[in-house]
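Quick one: Serine acetyltransferase from Blastomonas marina, structure tokens please.
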Amino acid sequence: MSMFRRLRTLLGDLWYIERNVRFRINLSRFFAYRVPLVGWGVSALIDRSLYSSYAIDVDSSSVDVFALSIAHPTGVLIGGNGVYSPGRVVIMAGVKLVTGRPGDPEYLRKHAERRVFEFGDNVVLSSGATLIGPLTICDNVVVGPDSLVNKSITEPGVYLGNPARRVSNDVSEDWVAHLPAPPKKGGHS
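--- reply ---
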């Protein structure tokens, strides 16, 4: 990659909100896991800058998503519960990832693994959705606006309501098309 392309990519990461959020989360994770002594402190400062810039409350060290998009980040609460996905996940404004019972043994186990929320590929969390973990969401799921997900979703589809119920099987990849595709399952590296 030429120096010009690298500079253009870096400037894009700093300018465009979605890319800037992704860049800061990745940078925070780098410091948390790769820089001894001061890394966790720098990571916390980067996370605080996400909060002050975009109102994203996150502990980036607990986010392990192959391709994450937070295009409209206002009021997003991810916290430090642990979000994992080997695929593409889109989070819209006002999404809350919370826990219902912090003393629950299943929650404590998943929290220690940093996988309180496990998502498949092509998962879209629409504006205002609230997810109460621990829970798992399979591939090809759209959670509609202002919906409450309080149990795992094991069948693809569009889910709406309080609590969320499947209202359609028609899920496209339109929301994740701009993100890099994850490696094929069971394929060779």
